[in-house]
Automatic annotation (TrEMBL):
Top-level enzyme category: hydrolase
Chain ranges passing through the membrane: 6-28, 40-66, 78-97, 104-129, 141-161, 173-198, 218-237
GGDEF domain segment(s): 293-425
Domain MHYT: 6-199
Protein name in UniProt: cyclic-guanylate-specific phosphodiesterase
BP GO annotations: cellular response to nitric oxide
Keywords: c-di-GMP, Membrane, Transmembrane, Transmembrane helix
Co-factor(s): Mg(2+)
GO cellular component terms, semicolon-separated: plasma membrane
Keyword Transmembrane helix set for record: yes
């Protein structure tokens, strides 16, 4: 019997190759598990090749490590066949563990096939020696080599299947598993080798025309290492790429979430915005349709936010809005939605147990806002006006609900603010009428549908006319003659008061000029200024222009501004009034007694006249307080050197009383109602003739 020997360095190398091949195989299974489509097939075939070459070369290097006292060679075809078997069984193994599940039976069957593959490779490789006479195999060792092959395959398949997902420490576990698998494969090989007995006098039939010679081990080793490294490198790089892609996908999802947050929320308060609110209302409507129940929608508008914002600046304004949002939000259930839909406008969507609960919520919200806010060292006081709609009942869709809630909110605002109003159908028509009126007002400005009526002013003691107050009227094509209360505030809100006011100034001056030419050069024409006009930078110029183009001396014009307007921004008013006064225009403080005048300031105002509000005149005869106030105003006016006018004089007794108290001039229905200019002169002529003044309109 020939005694074989092993080169220990080659044995070691074969073990390393086996471990490396195992590691590569395990790594590749991870790739296959996460790949999709064609990539699965590519990874599988590439993997089968790398793993097959690895296992085979371990075996081949193992063969090279073995030497007999005779020369050895390897039959090319059989060697190639053994390589093919290695590749095919590797492919099968990879395919098996790429399956979604691996039941025990399948694992056993797979292990059997793979074990058979490895054994065939090994014994095919042995057969490639073409020993003459044939190799004599020890049956026990041969049997155990087969058992080791199947057992090692089973272990390898199971480990590979378990390790294919990315888990923490996967590399370390994979490394340990690879060492185990490598030892198993090597064990199978050397058990198989140990089983082989070469009878004395054997010779190698493959020496002729087969592979042989020195350096073959290096060629095989280097090729194998190259194949394995390429496979491993590709796998590792691909894993990195995949990790990067996953990272990118994660940040993309995050960015998407942020974008959604931005698109659906108000940036200042973080509350839902109009878009999200619309969606939530739709959901709430859907829920009521499916499960019944009800909800309320509350339109919350802050009263007095704008002055705070103007006085303390946007920074404080923003902080205040945030504080309001936080306070309101803090007292809601998580399923309720509080949205901010405009500067100081919020909308609250609350699910209700019963419709009656809406009032409790509304009261709570109003109270929450009315408690003072401490912002940047300031104690700020706000109130809120709330409009409430209920669903079902006050609208069919979110648009209608919001519109109605808005109308109800306006109602609450007009009703004195700091409170709430439930929607009522009449409010809606009001709101719609206002909108229509606003459109009509724009047309009115373009088409000049305005006219002035004049109400005479009389000298109290002499009972002689001393001029008139010009009062604006709108000849509405459908509604007829409209009084200022119907449209002045609308004109102020929209800024239309500026062009309208300029027209009034010009028209009043033109009329006064006509009267001057008719011999009434001692009269004065009074024109009312709204607060908006008064704050408008162009006012002084407009006045100058109206006077100049109508060639009217400035002292024929009286400008009436209300006490409240004059006192609002005292210093700014002073500047404007001073300019007007310097021009020679008369200044009258209208509705005097209704605002809060500071005496100090009143003294500095370049005013010429105080006009006692008609509220005091009305109750003069019954209310001793009013009488006291009127006489105090008269005394004050006299002390300050101002003329005192009383307006709203309707009875003879009022006339007598006011005259006795010392009023300089009087104005009221008793002496004349506001009428068009022609009628005005007719009335005066008739009055001189002793007849009662005629009424132009009955208000
Ligand atoms: P005002 O300046 O206090 O004008 C006096 C108002 O009292 C006028 O109402 C007049 O018709 C009414 N009146 C006069 N005598 C009596 C009376 O004896 N009894 C009663 N109950 N009322 C009397 P009108 O014309 O409806 O004007 C209302 C307000 O509209 C005015 O109050 C004024 O603030 C504003 N206004 C009128 N014309 C203009 C204008 O051209 N520009 C601006 N900005 N406001 C105007
Ligand atoms: Ca007036
Ligand atoms: Ca007045």
């Amino acid at each position: 019997m020939l005694i074989g020997s092993y080169s220990s360095s080659l044995v070691l190398i074969s073990l390393c190759v086996a471990i490396l091949a195992s590691y590569t195989a395990l790594d590749l299974t991870g790739r296959i598990a996460t790949a999709k489509g064609r990539a699965v097939f590519l990874w599988m075939s590439g993997g089968a090749l790398a793993m097959g070459v690895g296992i085979w070369s371990m075996h081949f290097i193992g063969m090279l490590a073995f030497s007999l006292p005779i020369n050895l060679g390897y039959d090319l075809t059989l060697t190639a066949l053994s390589l093919l078997i290695a590749v095919l069984s590797s492919g099968f193994a990879l395919w098996l563990i790429a399956q979604p599940t691996l039941p025990v039976l399948q694992l056993a069957f797979g292990a059997l096939i793979m074990g058979a593959g490895i054994s065939s490779m090994h014994y095919m490789g042995m057969a490639a020696l073409r020993m003459q006479p044939g190799i004599d195999y020890d049956p026990t060792l041969f049997g155990s080599s087969l058992a080791i092959a199947v057992g090692a395959s089973a272990a390898a398949l199971w480990i590979a299947f378990r390790l294919r997902q990315h888990t923490p420490y996967v590399r370390q576990i994979r490394g340990a598993a690879a060492v185990l698998m490598g030892i198993a494969i090597v064990g199978m090989h050397y058990t198989g080798m140990a089983a082989a007995n070469f009878p004395e006098g054997s010779f190698c039939g493959a020496l002729d025309g087969g592979l042989s010679g020195d350096g073959l081990d290096y060629v095989v080793l280097i090729t194998t290492l190259a194949v394995l490294s390429v496979a491993l490198l590709t796998s590792v790089l691909d894993a990195r790429l995949e990790a990067r892609t996953a990272e990118l996908a994660r940040s993309l999802t995050l960015a998407n979430q942020e974008l959604t947050q931005l698109a659906l929320h108000d940036t200042l308060t973080g509350l839902p915005n109009r878009t999200l609110l619309a969606d939530r209302i739709d959901q709430a409507i859907g829920k009521v349709a499916e499960q019944g129940g009800c909800f309320a929608l509350m339109f919350i508008d802050l009263d007095g936010f704008k002055p705070v914002n103007d006085a303390f600046g946007h920074h404080v304004g923003d902080q205040l809005l945030k504080a309001v949002a936080t306070r309101l939000r803090g007292h809601l259930h998580s399923q309720d939605t509080l949205a901010r839909i405009g500067g100081d406008e919020f909308v609250l969507l609350v699910e209700l147990q019963a419709l009656e609960d809406a009032m409790d919520v509304a009261v709570k919200q109003v109270n929450l806002v009315s408690r003072p806010f401490r912002i940047a060292e300031h104690d700020l006081q706000l109130t809120a006006s709330l409009g409430i709609v209920l669903y079902p009942g006050n609208g069919l869709d979110q648009l209608e609900l919001l519109r109605n809630a808005d109308a109800a909110m306006y109602h609450a605002k007009n009703g004195g603010k700091n409170g709430y109003s439930f929607f009522d159908v009449s409010m809606n028509s009001n709101a719609r009428q206002q909108l229509q009126l606003l459109q009509d007002l724009r047309t009115a400005v373009e088409e000049g549908q305005f006219c002035l009526h004049y109400q005479p002013k009389f000298d109290a003691a002499l009972r002689q006319p001393i001029g008139a107050e010009a009062l604006l009227r709108w000849e509405h094509p459908q509604h007829g003659l409209l009084l200022p209360d119907r449209f002045i505030s609308l004109a102020e809100k929209t800024g239309l008061i500026i062009p309208i006011g300029e027209w009034v100034l010009d028209e009043a001056c033109r009329q006064m000029r006509e009267w001057v030419e008719q011999g009434h050069g001692d009269w004065r024409i009074a024109v009312n200024l709204s607060a908006i006009q008064f704050c408008h930078a162009g006012l002084v110029d407009s006045v100058a222009r109206a006077l100049q183009s109508n060639r009217l001396p400035a002292n024929r014009l009286t400008l009436e501004i209300t006490e409240t307007t004059a006192m609002r921004d005292a210093d700014a008013s002073l500047t404007v009034l001073q300019k007007l006064s310097d021009m020679g225009v008369d200044i009258s403080i209208d509705d005097f007694g209704t605002g809060y005048s500071s005496l100090m300031y009143l003294k500095r105002l370049p005013a010429n006249e105080l006009k006692i509000d008609r509220g005091f005149v009305r109750d003069l005869e019954h209310d001793s307080d009013d009488a006291a106030i009127v006489s105090a105003i008269v005394a004050l006016g006299q002390a300050l050197g101002l003329r005192i006018v009383a307006e709203g004089v309707e009875t003879d007794r009022q006339q007598d009383f006011l005259t006795r108290l010392g009023c300089d001039s009087l104005q009221g229905y008793l002496m004349g109602r506001p009428v068009p200019a022609e009628q005005f002169m007719l009335d005066l002529q008739q009055a001189r003739g002793g007849a009662a003044p005629e009424e132009a309109i009955s208000s």
